[in-house]
Amino acid sequence: xxxxGTPVGDPRECxxxxxxxxxxxPPEQPNIVVGSVKTNIGHLEAAAGLAGLIKAxxxxxxxQIPPNLLFKTCNPRIDLEGWKLKVS
Length: 88
What we know:
single chain; about 90 residues; mainly alpha; globular
């Protein structure tokens, strides 16, 4: 099965996010929402950082996180529950 993202990099990134921010989450907001801008506007190579910044500004302005389009299953090497993550 092909999962979106990179099979090696995504678990490492998610593990680092969970280890850094997951342990200090308040009980009323236990999960850190993670996602990708690529599913919304495509892979932009050199402009990927700018696209991420635009999405972050959108999230702050609108008070919501755009969902990942077409997301169905997570890479089994990503422990969403254990790392307190949630895919938008």
